[in-house]
Amino acid sequence: MDDALKLRKATYHLWTFTISKLISSFGAQVYSFAISFYILQLTGSATSFAANLICNILPRTLISPFVGYAADRYSRKMIVIAAQISTTLAIGGLLFVTLSSGLSLGAIYATTCILSITSAFSGVTFTSSITGLVDKERIQRAMSLNQMSISFASIGSPAVGGLLYGAVSMPTFLIMYMVASSFAVILESTMNFKLFSNRKTDAENEKKETMWQSMKAGISYLKLQPILMTIIWIGLLVNFLFGAFEVGYSFILIEKLKMPPTHFGITGGALAFGMLLMSIFFSVRKEVEFPLVLSKRGIIGLGMTIGGMAIPLLIIMPYSIVLAYYILIMFGFGILLIIVNTPIQVMLQKKIDDDFKGRVFSILETMAMALMPLGMVLYGFLYDIFPAHWILFFSSALLIGVVLYLARPSVIHHLHPELKEVRRPKKKAASFS
């Protein structure tokens, strides 16, 4: 295939990938919204609601290491298509149960577990395939469009979910989800996952590894990449400390400031809107030259924003000012999240060998998904004991301290040695008289 044809195919991939991710993200979030409402209306129990959340998180966390092995060993295209078909069949199974014997909690929990597993296979494999789908000059654009799809789904899914939940029956809603998921399957089947891939073919790689050996090889590969390990540690610690924001945001606005649900929803929309705008910006601008530098600055900004959330607790303000303040805070937080994530994701795509991408990204997902609930549980406990503003200030200082140490100048110069040339002052030319 000549270069011009490959570039045209890559452009096609950009849009099919974006539309497919939009369908899957939008469908999953609207489904989650509708099912959550249904569970609460059916049982009125927070425990039943929490059990559905566990069914969403736990299977994905447990299956992620095996997903990485599969993504590196087998056809990524077939895994993505099989995962999307399984999603369609799972929704079809729930529809059949609903029509034959009525919707039950057991059927909902089982479906949520299946969707969690298929989402893990689709998400990790798609992420591992970016460098095979598009040319390296447009990896940043692909990652930005991916994030744009997620942000758009975050903004629109509550409104669409609320509208559909009140306007159509549950069977009609499930049929709509099945049709959308089937369309995603058709789109994915037209994509060439090996267009720019550097993976070894089966003929070149006759050595057979067990699943355990393969996962150990992925960990060994990471240990030999000190810069990657630094980036991963930064990401994991940021995810853990993000619990201060996740728990504190809801606790402060709902419990401390007694903000009405409508206004609370507006602040959440501001976060998604900030992410969407910044994703659009990254999709059209040239690739970031020094990604770790930009992400470091973004994390420092996140730390300052987390500390800034405590200000209305210390200074008495009119309610309208408090609402405007948190809308601005959340909008800025959304922008900073993309500033932190997109350059790092692009750098990981370029730095990680194609044959190890699945295992590395699955290790990342497993650790991140394990740390985030741990952070939320810990911070939930802390917010019940200590004043909220002290927790936010301490977490803010800790986050800034962690990134200043892990992304210290020596580490940044090791990754971006050209920075020394950029910052070195030019010597004045000698004058001879």
UniProtKB/TrEMBL annotation:
GO terms assigned for molecular function: transmembrane transporter activity
Topology with respect to the bilayer: Multi-pass membrane protein
Gene3D superfamilies assigned to the protein according to its UniProt record, in alphabetical order: MFS general substrate transporter like domains
GO cellular component: plasma membrane
Sequence intervals crossing the membrane: 12-31, 79-100, 106-127, 148-168, 174-193, 227-252, 264-285, 297-317, 323-348, 360-382, 388-407
Keyword Transmembrane set for record: yes
Keywords of the record: Cell membrane, Membrane, Transmembrane, Transmembrane helix, Transport
Subcellular location: Cell membrane
Record-linked Pfam families: MFS_1
CDD domains xrefs: MFS_MefA_like
Keyword Iron-sulfur: no
Protein name: MFS transporter
Species for this entry: Cytobacillus depressus
